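Appendix B: a complete holo record

For completeness, this appendix reproduces one full record from the ligand-bound portion of the collection. The bound molecule is zinc ion. The inputs are the chain sequence and the ligand SMILES; the output is the full three-dimensional arrangement of the complex, encoded as structure tokens. No fields have been trimmed.
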Amino acid sequence: MSRHAGAARFAFNWGLSRVKAAVEQRAAEASYGVPEAERTPVPWTMPTLRREWNRAKGDVAPWWSECSKEAYSAGLDRLARGLKAFSDSRTGRRKGRRVGFPRFKKRGRARDGFRYTTGAYGPAGDRHVTLPRVGRVKVHEPMTALTARLADGRARLLGATVSRTAGCWYVSFTVEVERPVPAGPSRRQRRGDAVGVDLGVKHLAVLSTGEMVDNPKHLAASLRKLRRVSRAYARSKRGSAGRRQRAARLAKIHARVANQRRDGLHKLTTRLATSHDVIVIEDLNVAGMVRNRRLARAVSDTGMAEVRRQLTYKTTWYGSRLVVADRWYPSSRTCSACGWRNPSLTLSDRTFVCKDCGLSMDRDLNASYNLRALTGAGVAGYPDVPVTSNARGADRKTHLGGQVAVKREPGTATAGQTGTLAPRGTTAEQVSANAH
Ligand SMILES: [Zn+2]
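The structure of the chain with zinc ion bound, as generated:
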């Protein structure tokens, strides 16, 4: 698997050097007055990159047949996407942060990975996966749910991504799953009514029902360990063997924290989506917040992006509805009883005290009340709260075969598409398994 990841990296770097050389060549030709149409073309897209690679691989990589050709394709595909993101960003076709020109991938620095889209890849029983040219690999977690669905035709494989995180190899399958989508909320969901959800640091979430959902049991211990190891890492000498060791340990703990948190979030979002008919959460400036330097905040912020992403597809699956409060709606600063707003509330104020009506309550609970109130006629003192929602009705969007990815790198999570699937639509989801 290492070798395949290396092959993908090699193809990426080779392609990038070709692109750079062609760009320079064109610039030189332009300075000699060669007309535009006669200048050297730049292999900017996947088909041109692939054509050039197939022509050159015998010379530049005589060992190419040792790895699956999918590995080289994955590297070139990543390059083509990077180039497209760069040019789209420059011409304004892509929103968000500016995307830089692709850079060479260094061994050990870049994330290792490659992808299969064709060939005989897939689960081999519940405990193994078959990866072309790699072989049969044992996996850590049983894939019973996936193999059962593949066996009776309820799911179809679209691709497999193999990647390495903190020394562990992961394979995630993109599958298309057929699942019936309910037309509306069930009786249980209607009984559960609307719920406001305030996501926090101390608790995983505070619900407007008064419930404080605790963080996963072992998360606090992992976070303490994370803090200790990251301090030790920061103190260690650059370039030393000890630093490399600590970096590996740090990455492992980071991965464990992320897993524990994701697990807790999945349990929470499934429960919310199945037992309430409307769920209200805050919108967050995700791109801005994940760059926050404070550890606890950073962890919870990525959690919020994840909650929104999960709720977006789970509400569709279970027939409930997700309402996302406007980014500027001050759910924490507003009194849930009278609408008075506290302009000087800080993050350390754990209790909300209203100077107008005298209300005094837990800060997060107050926020969750305000969020829940958004489903009604508005909130006292803030009647015209703009909300975006995936309401069935006026703004219904139908996504057939929309993809839902379960595993993503932190920082790249985008707020999910809002929309309602037509009954019996298909969604694609990723199933991850940890390979030994
Ligand atoms: Zn008040």
